[in-house]
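We emphasize that the prediction below concerns an isolated chain of 198 residues; any contacts that depend on oligomerization or on bound cofactors are therefore not represented. The input was used exactly as deposited, without trimming of termini.
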Amino acid sequence: MAVYGYVRVSTKEQNEDRQVVALHKAGVPKESIYLDKQSGKDFERPRYIQMLRRMQPDDVLYIKSIDRLGRNYEEIQNQWRILTREKKVDIVVLDMPLLDTRRGKDLMGTFLSDIVLQVLSFVAENERTTIRQRQAEGIAAAKARGVRFGRRPKPLPANFRHIYQQWKAGKITGLAAAKACNMPMSTFRYRAEVYEKK
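Result of the prediction step, given as a token string:
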């Protein structure tokens, strides 16, 4: 029986220490901890897949919380099934002691574990949906207040007004105007449109 730990953080900037410390306290050796720094939106995680290939029946996988398997209800359920039924490994979710497949291997224990898993998977997905909705509402409110997102546009070249007027009057082509302003054609057209509105 081998012991494994799986850690996932959603971005390269996020710190995995909290999860790693919890796994160490649970007795997972450092060399048996697999870490992916990748979003939970899909399951293309190289270290997780590598760990899955090494696992044998009766091995134990420790994770800090259920959403480390994914944030999508269906994906969490699917990975749980692959691990427990196909790979025949045990899972211990440190944040939720009820989700420890080592105990209660009888029908009642399996039934209770399945119910808790379904509820927590639903909560994880619902939380993700709520976060997305709040982000969208926050962005919409900020835009309504005039907050601009993205990089600030470069200042217009000193000759832009003169070139723009020549182009508008039909004295030069758009291509010639863009070249004179040292811009790609699409950028010149966009900047000209914004300039017109102002």
